[in-house]
Design brief:
elongated, 54% helix, 5 helices, two-stranded antiparallel sheet, mainly alpha, single chain, 99 residues
Amino acid sequence: MQTHYQKYKETIKKVARRNYSKRVSWVNKHLDTSSCMQCGESETICLKFHPHDAEIRKKSKITGINTDARDEIVKLIENSKILCHNCWIKLDNDLIELL
């Protein structure tokens, strides 16, 4: 007799991957209509939340997609500036100051 997990192993994996993708895309949707506040870069893949990007992305990957679970992440997003990767590096190396 198969256990429940063994019987539905592939389905469980597929659902887990789909939910993970939804959580990752949720963060990127916040950047869809944004641009770097320093240089104007608008390519989503280049944009980051300064200074909380790593924390936002880490928490969004493990937190459910319901509204209540996302409150902490939304607060971090609201307290962040949007910068492109290049401007982030320049800021970290004191080559620019935030406008």
